[in-house]
Design brief:
The complex is a heteropentamer, with 1 copy of chain A, 1 copy of chain B, 2 copies of chain C and 1 copy of chain D.
Chain A lengths: L1 E6 L9 H8 L2 H4 L2 E6 L7 H6 L5 E4 L1 H9 L4 E5 L7 E6 L14 E4 L6 H10 L11 E4 L5 H4 L5 E5 L3 H7 L7 E5 L11 E5 H4 L2 H23 L1 H11 L7 H15 L8 H12 L18 H7 L1
Parallel strand pairs in A: 1-2, 1-3, 6-7, 6-8
Antiparallel strand pairs in A: 3-10, 4-10, 5-8, 5-9
Helix pairs in contact in A: 1-9, 1-10, 9-10, 9-11, 9-13, 10-11
Chain C lengths: L3 E14 L2 E14 L3 E5 L6 H8 L7 E6 L4 H6 L3 E4 L11 H11 L4 H14 L15 H13 L5 E5 L7 H18 L2 E5 L3 H7 L2 E6 L4 E7 L14 H16 L5
Parallel strand pairs in C: 3-7, 3-8, 5-6, 6-7
Antiparallel strand pairs in C: 1-2, 1-4, 8-9
Helix pairs in contact in C: 3-4, 3-5, 4-5, 7-8
Chain D lengths: L1 H22 L6 H26 L9 H10 L1 H36 L1 H15 L3 H12 L3 H24 L4 H9 L4 H35 L4 E2 L3 H10 L3 H29 L4 H4 L1
Classes of the chains: A alpha/beta, B mainly alpha, C alpha/beta, D mainly alpha.
The structure holds adenosine-5'-triphosphate (2 copies), ligand VIB and magnesium ion (MG) (2 copies).
The site of the ligand Cc1ncc(C[n+]2csc(CCO)c2C)c(N)n1 has 9 residues of chain A, from loops.
Chain lengths: 307, 287, 259, 281, 259
């Protein structure tokens, strides 16, 4: 069997259910692959891992992948299991925020470490400065959790529909106490969790073939997970070595994830790609990427995998 | 053993302060919840609620104790929810790192004390090396080691060693230089060579300094091992517990992992202290 | 008896201190021959210790030259020519008394058995048998000093340099050790440099008495003893002895500001 | 390949030069004391540049020093802003408070054998809490700005400083203490005139180790939440963006600032403990 | 002259060591009256230092009782009754010589001006004027010892305890300091406890000579001096002096194993 190492973007959770299901159900084995899944974390940049040879294929968000590409690391999207974006900004209702027009003067929590691009390009499209100048917002580098919102250190924080939002709810705030702004709804959605490899390795036919088989098995895993949501969550729990995840949270997460993967068969929709690129380039004086990337995605793998 | 009563007294004091602080720090949340629900609160309600929140700003001792009990005694030690299992993972990296770090630290100190070129060139850079934020370069270390095929325990141990070698170098350099002029002169009159002055004079007189450094060093090793768990995916170990606890806002889980780490550190420091006492006693240096 | 073992010529030694230089030795000329027993006597602070240290290459002269066995003091030290008894006992606190005496033996590579044998012998010599297992701080001041003498006698250095070795001892132990030292010297033909404040001791022991004057340390008188090599304790009551003692006292007094 | 060979040759030459200077009579001269470590450092940089270029290491893994230098010269205002936020506000404040507190506690518990036996183990315990666990909690308690960073530093430097000071306060020898007893000196007099001076070599050991811990602590704490400035913020953000040049630029600033900080404390130590054998030879 | 200042009764003192107990003092009975000058003489290791330390409450007797001015040594210490010169100089390395002498003065709250005045005076007394600014390691052994004597004389303790203070000094300085000490004693009516190994020194200085025997330390003889209080140096040649010296020497010799 061929060895393939997958580097996740974050810790073991239902967000990556498809891959764990494929592993557990033997879909990779059927494709004669021996897959190792490396969990990520707050200190792990998937793009750096793939550049250092620590993984063959990584999961990353498109904004950071494209930014890395512009920095000279030729990442290529070979598959896009997530159709829609799950990112949003969640505010406490009592702050009086009802629309993006209310943001100026407020304190917003943002994830950095390569996850800040969607937020920055949204703000620059709204024309709201983030550098602390007059009429802008105060940006905090949000830690790993939603504490800043709960402790009222921030008026809004970044959340994912499938994860942090529910932590706010679990912490005792009711949906009515919250106002949410989904990037998807604001028209600034960028592509999340895609599979990326190094461009030069794709020219190796053997590697390309492994990727074809990998994507095929992974998508099989994703579709299985969508249909057997609770079982998928249990499989994820099985693989979580920290012993920190709870069943309730993972099952709920899997339900939300299924909504995001629903529209995708694995192949990248060029229209989504164009929209993401447009959004990233529209950033006024400080765009995330300065010129439209070339060859940042390929259908070669998915075409072969899905035929 | 004479310290039992004083320790218990101090611990009791801390626990009392801890409960008080918990009530103060957690009450904001209780009030907010009540306001949202539109109920009036008595003082007693506030106290009861602040001591039993699910994700308190400051968990109270009995909550942490219960969590510790649950995750140590009630779980099999092979279970991934057992703190003993995670503690062992961290401990093994700590010990390996401490061994590497102490060894390297002592060797460096010996070099610095015996070789002027090393003294002049290495010491400033050993200092500079410690000002590099380990968490920043840890991922790079992991990536680089990974690309040469080193994985698992060793990268964590290296990060742990990186943090522990420095206190050992500083303390040992001082200790190896602590013999006074007459003690050194005596050996000179014997025409003793460098090795002999090292084994017979410098090393014995550095012992008090060495042990003080070792105590700091082993605590630093533990911190290093925990830090090293982050860029290795934070899948096992006390650091992983803290991080995942923090990721999910599980303050009780963070605190129990923290307490576990501190117990581990205290044990390790205690063991070094015991060895110190035995050694110094055998050397006739305690009266 | 006429090979020069130690030869100092126009020796100068100046210490740099926080408030200016201190000249400890100035224009010191001295020749010590093989088998000589030379005592140094002089007021406190006149440079006796400094001169002994210069012989043992523990201080670097700032002028003049000094040779030991025809080579530099440093080379002589490499050849393990010295046994040195410091003015303070300077025992290593982490070694027992036996351990301290073994120290030079270990360094010079004596066998374990030989070490034990010698330790036993010198402990006996300085009357400390039975105290081998004690640590230095468990001994009285005089006992520590005797232990440090034992340490210097345990191995066979050609040149023995002793800085007030018997200062903290009572008259009777002192007499006893004086006899022992003379016997050892007669038996082994060692060359001995000996600092003392006791005029009778200096006269009793020495073949040559060097009288020094205070800062900057100079040699004011070198007295060759006319006493025979064989010296019973009661030689100290002979007129010859008293005359030498008188000459030393006069030399000493000249260096002092009082009276 | 030529880069590699050049690096190795340079290394060999510099090595010999340093050994020559260090063993020559000039080794105590000021120029030699500066030149030797600088040459050592330059050697590291040259070897680094040579290896990176010679082996073609991708710059997202390890950029060459030349690129880092270019980044430093370009980003002076940012680097300065980060430095003030992290070093001056976070590390320095925390260092002063933490070392001060540890020193005070050491003196306090030294007075009472009861407290010493009670607090020391518990103090060890609390101060051995790893930064990864304490930082999120302290950020939650003290907010995102530098206050929480200073708090992390306080917790980090406390233990080394405490252990060293306690050890130092026990360092005077028996005769020195007996002398004070014969004067019937009060506790404070003995402390001020004997035990503190005798403790200074140990105290400075603690102070020196703490300088580097303070800087690390302040930087790492920013990882767990911060305003959008600060050295730790910049480092973690730029790693995520693969801006390794900037990461190393910040590391360079940290190394220079940390070394200078350490050097300053070491210089004060030299003045205060001039009498200690380790400073005299 | 008959108030007992120091009164020891059936005093026992045993040290516990790694290889068994060491009995340092055994059944010691002694009364010292106000204004006495008491010398302790005895073989090395017999317990002289230990007894002095017990008087100053630096060691705790394991049996018997000791009172100072009618109270316990501890209380006497609180009242700052003692000036103590240790057997080793024990100067603080971080203070200059002046600084070391000022130490007790600072502790006892003398004014700055008074401190300066006294430091100058005692430095002069021990012949160290001009060395005030040096650090201890820059002085010779004898100079350090003199500095430590100066330190004990700088303040006015009623009881002066001196442990071989003049051991490292040459005869002439020693004679000079002996005279100075006698003069000080006559002037101030201090009570002095003095350990020495020199029989003439003991006889010359004391009103009472305590001869001790070796381990376990016992008092074998207490000799009341019949010499007048006024003592020129040449009193040492009188038959009376020589007789007392002879008695001390006999007492000492009895305690030794040799001959
Ligand atoms: N390390 C030093 N630094 C500065 N001055 C010194 C040093 N060592 C000795 N001296 C000075 O040199 C002079 C001679 O000192 P030395 O120790 O040789 O005297 P000594 O004859 O042995 O006296 P003593 O009989 O008191 O031991 C003294 O004035 C002393 O202050
Ligand atoms: N701290 C200690 N621990 C154990 N034994 C000790 C201690 N101090 C002294 N001794 C023992 O007590 C005995 C008496 O010692 P002390 O110092 O009183 O003698 P000394 O009469 O002052 O002798 P010296 O003239 O040599 O100074 C000695 O046998 C010594 O070994
Ligand atoms: C420092 C930090 N950065 C990012 C996230 C959030 N985050 C990490 S990965 C990911 C997408 C997949 O879950 C998201 C939203 C965090 N919590 N902490
Ligand atoms: Mg001397
Ligand atoms: Mg004594």
């Amino acid at each position: 069997a061929d060895d393939v190492t997958l580097q996740l973007k974050w810790v073991t959770q239902a967000q990556f259910a498809g891959y764990y299901v494929a592993l557990e159900k033997g879909f990779y084995e059927e494709e004669d692959l021996n897959v190792t899944i490396k969990p990520g974390g707050p200190d792990i940049a998937p793009s750096q891992v793939v550049a250092g040879g620590g993984a063959d294929v990584v999961i990353d968000w498109m904004p950071s992948a494209l930014a890395a590409r512009e920095k000279g690391l030729p990442l290529v999207n070979i598959a896009q299991p997530f159709k829609s974006s799950g990112m949003m900004l969640t505010c406490r209702a009592e702050t009086g925020i009802t629309s993006p027009a209310d943001f100026p003067g407020k304190t917003l929590g943002v994830w950095f470490f390569g996850n800040e691009y969607p937020f920055l390009s949204w703000m620059s499209q709204l024309g709201i400065p983030t550098d602390g100048s007059e009429g802008g917002v105060t940006v905090l580098k949000q830690g790993f959790n939603v504490d800043p919102l709960l402790q009222k250190q921030a008026d809004c924080v970044s959340t994912m529909t499938y994860n942090e939002y529910w932590q706010v709810i679990d912490a005792g705030l009711a949906p009515d106490d919250l106002v949410t702004f989904k990037y998807e709804d604001q028209g600034v959605a960028t592509l999340e969790d895609g599979l990326y490899v190094l461009e030069n390795k794709l020219s190796d036919a053997a590697f390309a073939d492994q990727m074809v088989r990998f994507v095929r098995a992974s998508m099989k895993g994703w579709k299985y997970a969508e249909e057997n949501s609770d079982e998928a969550a249990e499989i994820v729990l099985e693989y979580d070595e920290t012993g920190a995840q709870t069943e309730k949270h993972q099952k709920r997460m899997m339900g939300e994830i299924a909504k995001l993967t629903a529209g995708s068969n694995g192949a990248l929709d060029p229209a989504d790609y164009e929209r993401t690129v447009a959004s990233l380039m529209s950033g006024g004086s400080d765009p995330v990427i300065t010129k439209a990337p070339e060859g940042a995605w390929t259908h070669a793998i998915t075409d072969a995998a899905l035929k | 053993m004479r310290s039992i009563v004083p320790v218990l007294t101090v611990v009791a004091g801390i626990i009392a302060i801890w409960y008080g602080a918990a009530i103060v720090m957690n009450q904001q949340w209780t009030r907010d919840q009540a306001e949202r629900a539109g109920v009036e609160l008595q003082l007693s309600d506030i106290v009861v609620d602040t001591l039993s929140q699910e994700r308190p700003k400051l968990p109270v001792p009995h909550q942490v104790a219960a969590e510790l009990w649950k995750t140590t005694v009630e779980k099999k030690i092979t279970s991934k929810r057992s703190l003993i299992y995670h503690g062992w993972i961290t401990l093994s990296a700590t010990l390996l790192g401490f061994a590497i770090g102490t060894g390297a630290g002592i060797l460096l100190a010996v070099g610095i004390v015996h070789n002027r070129a090393m003294d002049m060139s290495v010491m400033p850079w050993a200092i500079a090396s410690q000002t590099i934020p380990i968490l920043a370069i840890a991922p790079m270390i992991i990536v680089v080691l990974n690309s040469v095929g080193v994985q698992g325990l060793i990268p964590k141990a290296i990060i742990s060693a990186y943090l522990s070698f420095f206190p050992v170098v500083v303390g040992m350099v001082k200790g190896l230089r602590s013999p006074d002029a007459m003690q050194l002169d005596l050996l000179k009159t014997y025409g003793a060579n460098k090795g002999q002055s090292f084994w017979k004079l410098r090393l014995p007189s550095s012992m008090p300094y060495l042990f003080t450094s070792l105590k700091v060093g082993i605590a630093a090793s533990l911190v290093g091992a925990i830090v090293g768990e982050l860029p290795t995916g934070a899948i096992r170990g006390l650091g992983a517990r803290m991080l995942s606890g923090s990721y999910y806002g599980q303050t009780i889980q963070i605190w129990s992992a923290l307490i576990a780490a501190a117990v581990l550190a205290a044990l390790l420091v205690g063991i070094v202290g015991l060895i110190q006492r035995i050694t110094l006693k055998r050397m006739g240096m305690t009266r | 008896m006429t090979d020069p073992v130690i030869k100092a010529e126009r020796l100068d030694l100046t210490f740099e201190t926080n408030d200016g230089p201190v000249q400890a030795l100035s224009d010191v000329n001295l020749t010590i021959n093989k088998g000589d027993f030379v005592s140094f006597i002089g007021p406190s602070g006149c440079g006796k210790t400094t001169f002994l240290r210069a012989i043992a290459a523990l201080e670097k002269p700032t002028g003049g030259s000094i040779t030991v066995n025809g080579v530099s003091p440093d080379e002589a030290r490499q050849a393990r020519a010295y046994g040195y008894v410091f003015q303070a006992a300077g025992l290593y606190p982490w070694r027992t008394i036996s351990g301290n005496i073994k120290l030079p033996l270990e360094i010079m590579g004596f066998s374990k058995a030989e070490q034990e044998e010698r330790v036993g012998r010198v402990l006996e010599l300085v009357d400390l048998a039975g105290f081998g297992k004690k640590f230095p701080w468990q001994l009285s001041g005089g006992m520590q000093q005797r232990a440090s003498i034992a340490r210097a006698l345990a191995f066979d250095a050609d040149i023995l340099l002793m800085d007030e070795p018997f200062g903290a001892l009572d008259e009777i132990v002192r007499d006893h050790l004086n006899e022992q030292l003379l016997e050892l010297w007669a038996r082994t033909e060692k060359t001995i440099g000996f600092v003392t404040h006791s005029i009778p001791e200096a006269v009793y022991l020495s073949t040559k008495i060097v009288v020094m004057s205070p800062r900057p340390g100079r040699i004011t008188d070198v007295i060759e003893s006319t006493l025979p090599k064989e010296r019973p304790l009661d030689i100290r009551d002979t007129p010859e002895f008293l005359e030498i003692a008188h000459r030393v006292r006069e030399g000493l007094r000249a260096g002092h500001a009082y009276d | 390949m030529t880069w590699l060979i050049f690096a190795l040759v340079f290394w060999a030459l510099a090595f010999f030069a340093n050994v020559r200077i260090a063993n020559s009579g000039h080794s105590t001269a000021l120029w030699a004391r500066l030149f030797v470590p600088v040459l050592f450092g330059v050697t590291i940089l040259v070897v680094w540049e040579g290896v990176v270029r010679g082996l073609g290491v991708p710059s997202v893994i390890l950029p060459p020093p030349s690129a880092i230098w270019a980044q430093i010269t370009q980003s002076v205002p940012t680097l300065w802003m980060d430095f003030v936020q992290t070093f001056i506000k976070g590390a320095l404040t925390g260092y002063l408070m933490g070392c001060g507190a540890a020193f005070a506690v050491a003196v306090l518990i030294d007075r009472s054998p009861f407290l010493q036996r009670g607090l020391l183990p518990v103090g060890n315990f609390i101060a051995a809490l790893p930064i990864i666990g304490t930082a999120p909690i302290l950020v939650m308690w003290f907010g995102f700005d530098w206050h929480s960073k200073a708090a992390v530093v306080v917790v980090m430097v406390f233990f080394p400083m405490l252990v060293n000071t306690v050890q130092g306060l026990a360092a005077s020898d028996t005769m020195q203490r007996d002398l004070m007893k014969t004067y019937s000196a009060s506790y404070w007099q003995t402390l001020l005139k004997l035990r503190l001076p005798a403790a200074m070599p140990f105290v400075f050991n603690g102070l020196k180790i703490s300088t580097t811990l303070a800087l690390i602590g302040a930087i790492v704490a920013e990882f767990f939440g911060s305003p959008i400035k600060g050295m730790g913020f910049r480092i973690s953000t730029e790693v995520g963006r693969l801006g390794l040049d900037m990461v190393w630029a910040e590391i360079a600033v940290a190394a220079v600032a940390g070394s200078a900080f350490y050097g300053l404390v070491a210089a004060i130590e030299k003045g205060v403990t001039f009498w200690h054998p380790s400073q005299r030879s």
